[in-house]
Design a protein that fits this description.
binds manganese (II) ion, binds nickel (II) ion, alpha/beta, seven-stranded mixed beta sheet, 6 helices, 14 strands
């Protein structure tokens, strides 16, 4: 007796909007991370009004992660997911669709399971108000698991993430100065046991400009793959 399964593999699409802003599309839902587009000269070809979003995830309060969050939430009616303090700030700006979380917690959304993980970074809002603790996100979906570290230093806590789940792809900062740089990102990818890394948080400002060739070579020499996506580019995994 033979069992024939009509197996449809789910895919995930990842679009880069510059700096630390990505859209992850899975199962017809679009999750946008850290919208910072209108203030980023490198993303001048991206129009906020053309960005689809069902969810907006905010890792921390800094302007290069929150600048377009309110406007994008207004345009899309997306649900804003962040820490408690940032969700309060978002609500004060007139956006009522928020879901407050905090580090260590997870919640089941219709795209899958979202877990908030530790990040070593500061978090104040653009107006100087308190922005809670910076965090990273772990998305577990039927199309794969994604670790978006947010702005962070290399941390031993990343080993917990690698032990906890299989990570299929990760977004890690590589620009140094404000976050970890290339060498520490290679170690981070070892800690989370994921050889497929999309670089973020580089080139946007003078102190975080990097040599792309050198960065890619370092990852290759470590047996890893560093993807430096073009702004506006979409990949399917
Ligand atoms: Ni930051
Ligand atoms: Mn930043």
């Amino acid at each position: 007796m033979r069992f024939i399964k009509n197996f449809v593999e789910k895919v995930m699409k990842i679009t880069y909007y510059g700096h630390a802003c990505f859209a992850v599309e899975v199962d017809g839902k679009t999750i946008v991370f850290d919208p910072f587009i209108s203030g980023n000269p490198l993303a001048k070809n991206i129009q906020l009004k053309n960005i689809k979003a069902d969810y907006i995830l905010i890792s921390h309060g800094h302007e290069d992660h929150t600048a377009d969050a309110i406007e994008l939430a207004r345009l899309t009616n997306a649900l804003v997911v962040s820490n408690f303090e940032i969700c309060n700030w978002v609500q004060e700006k007139g956006i009522n669709r928020v879901h407050a979380m905090n580090i260590g917690g997870h919640y089941m959304f219709d795209f899958g399971k979202l877990k908030c993980v530790n990040a070593i970074h500061s978090s104040s809002m653009p107006d100087g108000s308190y922005g809670g603790s910076a965090m990273g996100f772990l998305l577990e979906t039927e199309a794969g698991n994604v670790y978006y570290s947010g702005d962070t230093a290399l941390s031993y806590d990343m080993k917990l993430i690698g032990d906890y789940k299989r990570i299929d792809i990760c977004m890690l900062p590589i620009g140094s100065n404000f976050t970890m740089g290339i060498d520490n990102a290679i170690i981070a990818s070892e800690f989370v046991k994921c050889d497929r890394v999309i670089g973020m948080h580089y080139d946007t400002f003078p102190p975080i400009r990097i040599d792309h060739q050198e960065a890619k070579e370092k990852f290759t020499n470590a047996g890893k793959d560093l993807l430096l996506m073009k702004i506006g580019e979409t990949i399917t995994i």
